[in-house]
Give the backbone structure.
Amino acid sequence: MTSLDRRGLLRLGGALTVGAGLAACSGTGTGSGADSGGAGDPRKGEITVWSWQGPAAQLKALLPEFNKAYPDIKVTVQDIGNPAIWDKITTGLAAGGSGLADVLHIGVDYLPGYVEKFPTGLADLGPLGATKHKDAFAQGLWQTVAPKGRVNALPWEANSGGFYYRADLFEKAGVDVESLATWDEVIEAGKKLKAATGVHLLGIDKPASQPDAANFFQLLLQLQGKFYFDLDGAITLDSPEAVTALTLIKKMNDAGLVSDLAGGWSALENSIKEGTAAVLPWPTWFGGIIEGLVPQEAGKWKVRLPPAVRRGGATAATVNSTHLAVAGSSKQQAAAWSFIEFMLTRPASQVAIYRGKGIAPALMAAYEDSLFHEPSAFFSGQKKGEIFLQALKSPTPATNYSADYARALKVVTDAQTKVLLKGADPAEVLKQAADQLAQQTGRKVVR
């Protein structure tokens, strides 16, 4: 099963709305309100876990090991599917926790919305023992799951931004990719690349036919330590950093270096198979996608961390992550926490999950295993795990997606489309987008 199956691209921009016709699902959390849960016994009980595809399969595979340590905790892992899981969790939270599973697998883009809209919907993991693991995860992730002290979840997966590239094509163009320090230098290299090979630098879904069309813009923003919102929830969508990011994209497009990936994921897959772009600025997990799509190109690909936006700037950004939370309505919160702690804070568990599905752990101790330091035949003998480990060790600020990420994503992709298809001014369209988002949400704009 591919990484796309297991993450479903996190279904970026999915609105936190209750799906029509969705019935409350069976689970052990059956209290009438989200605050009706209880701690229970940490060594016995019956719990249900909601996840999707690959992650669910890996959790199931680890159950025999878990039950050696906790023989009296019966665990049922359910593959809800992605994106179905988001509506199902929302439905349960909106019903005061009725029908929710005890353990919930939640993407970074959904967690803040759940917390803001349903303040007691998720249990505080601090009193259950989570705070002792505060320093165990990649930088920035603890503040992401516990922005105001309350521990809403525990980090599982951490994906850093990457720069996958066709080394053979750049060599043909006479470009040393490892020497490219900034994205401005990448643009100049892209011109040489296209002149020598006819291949575009990279691809973007220009008409924003899919919600994740702003992934590249978002990466450029996070490399500058910025996002659509600050940690207080104010809008920073038209910050100088955002204008710089969209201006870089405009420069690439104006130079004819950007292919159109209208159509979303299928268009991206076809582009990789046809070799229409030499750079894929995608996260850690995407390496498995490339290898699966074009196995015959082993040895032609390499990977590095992205160049900085400004010379001397950051080349590391944690661009997405997933987490495990406990429902506030669960009657078995202590047992649910025992499960989460076993799966997410035990290096052996995370190594086994990575070996099975390539899910990059947020747990830093897991990277001591030799598995993350082996050369990759596909990626020209590079130790790919060490490259992304370098990013996870780098200072990376927390990211506040907020409950209004879906709205932000819509105005951002609209702004990007105006720039790519109509040549609009980045500063102007981002200002309009920020003002529009403020009107929709009541949030203030920081300028």
Notes: The mean pLDDT is 91. Strands lie at 44-51, 72-79, 103-107, 154-160, 163-166, 202-204, 258-260, 279-280, 301-304, 318-326. The first strand starts at residue 44 and ends at 51. Residues 130 and 341 are 8 Å apart (CA to CA).
